[in-house]
User: Fold this.
Amino acid sequence: MKNNYEVGSKVIMKKSHPCGTNLWLVVRTGIDIKLQCINCGRTIMIPRMEFNKKLKKVVEE
Assistant:
């Protein structure tokens, strides 16, 4: 499966953030993926393999 996300992509994750949204912005890619919550602005870093499991879809804009 080819990952079609890059820096600046908006992605929807399977679980929602405690603030209530499941829409995230990809800030950095590499071995870890850095995400920023669209609603509250919180940033998190998760390993790429974990990110690929929890990714629901990439939002096309």
In short: The CA atoms of residues 36 and 43 lie 4 Å apart. The chain has one domain: 10-59. The chain is about 10% helix and 45% strand.
